[in-house]
Structures are given as C-alpha cells and as structure tokens.
TrEMBL record:
Signal peptide feature range: none
BP GO terms, sorted: lipid metabolic process
TM spans (from-to): none
InterPro entries in alphabetical order: AB_hydrolase_fold (IPR029058), Fungal_lipase-type (IPR002921), Sec_MonoDiacylglyc_Lipase (IPR051218)
All residue ranges annotated as the Fungal lipase-type domain in the record: 29-162
Record-linked Pfam families: Lipase_3 (PF01764)
The protein's name: Lipase
Domain of life: Bacteria
Length: 226
C-alpha cells in the first residue's frame, strides 16, 4: 500500500489531502480520504472563490477541490503508472471530500491520460464538484461505471449550491429506511427526505450530519447486500 499526503497552510481551509493506493494481481484501488462536514461546510458555501478550468479544458471545477487534487495527483498518477503492470482493473473511491477528489481524478485520467483510465468510480456523500460541461464529459467516459451514493438527507451532496456547480449522473440513493434505489423521482425523494427529518423528533436538523457519516453508508449497503 502507498500513502500519498500533502499538508496545507492557512488560509487554505483543509489541513491536508490524502490518498491511499492498494494494488494486487487483479485490482488496484485508490481511495481518497474524506473530512467531516463541519470542516468544509463554510468553504463549500463560499461563493467568492472563482472556479478553476476542468481537466482537458472541459468546463470548470471548484477551486478548492482542484487545489486539493493537484497536491496529490502527481504521486497518485506515477504510482498507478508503476503498479498497473499487468492490466489490473483500477477503481477510484472516496467519501465526502474524498468522493470529489475520486471523481476528479477519474475525470482527469480519462481526459488527459486515457491509458490509465479507471474501470470504475465509487463515491459516498460526494459534494457537487464541477459545472455541467465537465459533468457531461465525465458521463461520456464513465456512463455505467460511476456510482454516486447519497444517504437520504446527507448535507454534503447538497453543497456547493447550484447552478454554478452540479453533480455527475449515476445517483444511487439510500432512502430513510436504508433501501438502495438506482433512481428516485423528485417528489418521492422529497417525501422520503421529509420522513428522514422526522426520524429524530428531538433533533430533526441533525439528520443532514448524521446521514453523512461513513458508518451509516456502510450499514445501509451491508443491509442491501444481506
């Protein structure tokens, strides 16, 4: 396993960006570390920082995500080029901030270095990361290979605000009862989210934070698999 880490100094709002590369005979998994919603909420809602050009000149990405990815991308790229010696399948994954970095890393390799393109991208509680132009370019390369899991009222996928930033497609929605849906009509999703908010009568607003925790994603997915 390889560990990639870069530390930041203020005023950049994150302490560091980290990724881990795990390689075997048949598969290579690159996992980007996430962060807690309280640490990035203000940053994600800050509209004063202009977006950055996206990979391959396609659209735009959130400035902070671009900076965080750039800090570890060279090490991730070089490690993947070194370890992918026998045609292993490659997967990117991440939770929260890590989900945004996994999606952007997948997009960058597909658009700029296609011989290293990933076979799949799996994200959990990923924030909105890019504009519609990059989202469409990403979908062309990863249609059927991108899985963006959102747990009910998770607050982070609702940030940064639209319309400047948007999500890539391939939503996998986990409802308030823990059931996984490959698609969810808007009215049904709104009804289900309202149901989730009332699950804790003493702290309804906490649902958006509670649903973001990775252990709740794992519990729901284990329930679906079981």
């Amino acid at each position: 396993m390889r560990h990639h880490e870069t530390r930041f100094t203020p005023p950049f709002p994150l302490q560091d960006a980290q990724a881990y590369t795990m390689a075997g005979d048949r598969m290579i998994v690159i996992a980007f570390r996430g962060t807690e919603p309280a640490q990035i909420k203000d940053w994600l809602t800050d509209a004063t920082t202009p977006p950055r050009p996206g990979p391959g000149g396609n659209g735009y990405v959130h400035h902070g995500f671009a900076e965080a990815l750039e800090s570890v991308y060279p090490a991730v790229h070089d490690t993947l080029a070194e370890l992918r010696s026998d045609g292993q399948a490659v997967y990117f994954t991440g939770h929260s901030l890590g989900g945004a970095l996994a999606m952007l890393a997948g997009a960058r390799m597909y658009l700029e270095d296609p011989h290293l393109a990933a076979d799949g991208v799996y994200t959990y509680g990923q924030p909105r990361t890019c504009d519609r132009l990059l989202a469409e370019a990403f979908h062309k390369g990863f249609g059927g290979r991108m899985y963006r899991f959102v747990n009910n009222n998770d607050i982070v996928p609702q940030l940064p605000p639209e319309p400047v930033f948007t999500h890539v497609r391939a939503l996998r929605y986990i409802d308030s009862g823990g059931t996984l849906h490959e698609s969810m009509p808007m009215f049904s999703a709104l009804t289900d989210r309202a149901k989730g908010l009332t699950a804790d009568a003493f702290a309804p607003a906490s649902d958006g934070i509670r649903d973001h925790f990775m252990h709740n994603y794992l519990a729901a997915l284990e329930k679906c698999l079981g």
